[in-house]
Amino acid sequence: MLYLKDRGHVHPLASEITPREVWRQRRTLIQGLAAGAATAAMPALAATTRPGKRDALPGARSAVPGAATMEAPTAYADVTSYNNFYEFGTDKADPAQRAQGLQTRPWTVVVDGLVKKPGRWDLDALLKLAPMEERVYRLRCVEGWSMVIPWVGYSLSELIRRVEPLGSARYVQFETLGDAKQMPGLRSNIIPWPYVEGLRMDEAMHPLALLAFGLYGEVLPPQNGAPLRLVVPWKYGFKSAKSLVAIRFVEQQPRSAWQRTAPQEYGFYANVNPTVDHPRWSQATERRIGDGLFAKRRPTQMFNGYEPQVGQLYAGLDLKTNY
Ligand SMILES: Nc1nc2c(c(=O)[nH]1)N[C@H]1C(S)=C(S)[C@@H](COP(=O)(O)O)O[C@H]1N2
Ligand SMILES: [Mo]
């Protein structure tokens, strides 16, 4: 088999993409190999099929607990064609159709606020900041559908540690690109632009909170939030802000764009919770994209199934009022 060398990782050529059917077998094999001491020096390759549509961005198998569900990933075609990215329109097909021209280089992310080391981070510096890992996460949208997506990135905590937050920093605010020249959706004022989200500091430091640069072993397609986005798997999808341009450390709880739009429907916590209904619909079940329109809906799990990992972050918090 031929390999390309790229930033210290080794990955197969696009022409040698593994058929979907053998994905699980190969994954088992790689896990077996990784367990052997002889291969310990080489990071185990993530075992997801590479679609060969964009530049390769391989990630090693993650050791973070909960980062590798054995559920089969949602088809790449579905992950990249059924999207919420209101900056490009509110129809699920709009982002894939309208975001292809998004300029993702040069790209800088401002990191400031209550930190010892504020600064501007170039995308290339961020790409080199920590080893890339593959994290296969469930993503559950507040609208009642879900996907399983093999992301590539590293824990947000890697960046947070390097900028040394002050003791007064209690929350992290995320701001995303709001460029009317590139984003036709900004003509509508459905939400106040730019798209803003926030996390409590301990949520942001949790190893499952991911700074994602890719999916399916390749750089993020624009419609999925290129060149980098947040992915918080235990919260409704709207927390996972796309195309980040600023990360601010603040004392007060940030007000997210969705809270400003409809506070009674989209709370700050946004934890997936099947026992708390959305004011307009039940959150008890979800439709897994790819299951087919006539398939039975699946029961939604508390914290999207990540309760063993994140449940303790919310001990003692009333999850009905803090939705
Ligand atoms: N900047 C920005 N980020 C965003 C959104 C958006 O409209 N704008 N939509 C959110 C919602 S509601 C969901 S469900 C997820 C969808 O991510 P995906 O299209 O990659 O599956 O992105 C989230 N991040
Ligand atoms: Mo969503």
From TrEMBL:
GO annotation, cellular component aspect: periplasmic space
Main location group: periplasm
Pfam families linked to this entry: Oxidored_molyb (PF00174)
GO biological process, one term: protein repair
Binding site for Mo-molybdopterin: N83, Y86, E87, C141, T176, N224, R229, S240, A241, K242
Oxidoreductase molybdopterin-binding domain residues: 103-258
EC number assigned by the record: 1.8.5.-
Subcellular location: Periplasm
Cofactor(s) it depends on: Mo-molybdopterin
EC class name: oxidoreductase
Cofactor remark from the record: Binds 1 Mo-molybdopterin (Mo-MPT) cofactor per subunit.
Segments forming a coiled coil: none
UniProt cross-references to SUPFAM superfamilies, sorted A to Z: Oxidoreductase molybdopterin-binding domain
Keywords, in A-Z order: Metal-binding, Molybdenum, Oxidoreductase, Periplasm, Signal
Catalytic function, reaction form: L-methionyl-[protein] + a quinone + H2O = L-methionyl-(S)-S-oxide-[protein] + a quinol; L-methionyl-[protein] + a quinone + H2O = L-methionyl-(R)-S-oxide-[protein] + a quinol
An example molecular function term from Gene Ontology annotations: oxidoreductase activity, acting on a sulfur group of donors, quinone or similar compound as acceptor
HAMAP family noted in UniProt: MsrP
Quaternary structure note: Heterodimer of a catalytic subunit (MsrP) and a heme-binding subunit (MsrQ).
Family: Belongs to the MsrP family.
PANTHER family the UniProt entry points to: PROTEIN-METHIONINE-SULFOXIDE REDUCTASE, PROTEIN-METHIONINE-SULFOXIDE REDUCTASE CATALYTIC SUBUNIT MSRP
Role of this protein: Part of the MsrPQ system that repairs oxidized periplasmic proteins containing methionine sulfoxide residues (Met-O), using respiratory chain electrons. Thus protects these proteins from oxidative-stress damage caused by reactive species of oxygen and chlorine generated by the host defense mechanisms. MsrPQ is essential for the maintenance of envelope integrity under bleach stress, rescuing a wide series of structurally unrelated periplasmic proteins from methionine oxidation.
Protein name in UniProt: Protein-methionine-sulfoxide reductase catalytic subunit MsrP
The organism of origin for this protein: Rubrivivax gelatinosus (strain NBRC 100245 / IL144)
